[in-house]
Structure formats: structure tokens, C-alpha cells
Amino acid sequence: MPIDPVCRMEVSEGTELKAVYNGKVYYFCSPECKAEFEANPEEYIKGEEMEHEHGKHSHEHGHRRHGCCH
Ligand SMILES: [Zn+2]
Fold first, then answer.
1. Is position 25 within any domain?
2. Which Pfam family is one of those matched by this entry (predicted)?
3. What's the gap in Å between 66 CA and the centre of ligand 1?
4. Confidence of residue 51 (pLDDT cuts 50, 70, 90)
5. What pLDDT does 50 receive?
6. Mean pLDDT of 20-26
7. pLDDT at residue number 53
8. Gyration radius (Cα) of the chain, Å
9. What pLDDT score does 54 carry?
10. Is residue 19 within 8 Å of 37, Cβ to Cβ?
């Protein structure tokens, strides 16, 4: 299921509420979220990437392993 990049809830791919940015399709739960994204797409795309890299779980896990195996 795609994630609404603005409020981060799961949305159905069948929704009419979508926007294409940088060749990627983004789906939204409401016209408000879509408008919000279109007003400032960079912000929401950046946030998406940051959450992946600095996800608490993977960060902590990776750090620990590195410390004890080397
Ligand atoms: Zn939303």
C-alpha cells in the first residue's frame, strides 16, 4: 500500500488523489494532503528519505553489531 507522504497513513492505490513528482507517483488520503504536498513537495520527499536512513530500529541495530563484531 502506498503511503500518504504528508500524514503518512496508508492509502489505496485506486484513489483519485495522486500527484506525480520527479517521476514518482504519490497518493493522498484527502485533497488537503494533496494540496499540502503540491505546495511544498521537496519537504515531504526529504522527510521520507530521512526516515528511512535514520529509522530508530535499523540505526540502533546496525550500530550495535558494528561495535561487537569488530
Ligand atoms: Zn493524508
1. yes
2. YHS
3. 37
4. low
5. 57
6. 93
7. 54
8. 16
9. 52
10. yes
Report if residue 59 sits inside a domain: yes
The arithmetic mean of pLDDT across residues 13-36, rounded, is 95
Q: Is 18 helix (H, G, I), strand (E, B) or coil?
A: strand
Q: In angstroms, what is the span from residue 52 Cα to ligand 1's centroid?
A: 19
Residue 69 alpha carbon to ligand 1 centre in Å: 42
Confidence tier at 69 by pLDDT (50, 70, 90)? low
Residues with CB under 5 A from ligand 1 (ion): 4, 6-7, 29, 33
* Grid coordinates belonging to 41: 513537495
Domain range for 27 is 18-69
Q: How many domains does the chain have?
A: 1
- 6 DSSP assignment: T
Distance 49 CA to ligand 1 centre (A): 18
Contact by Cβ (8 Å): 3, 17 = no
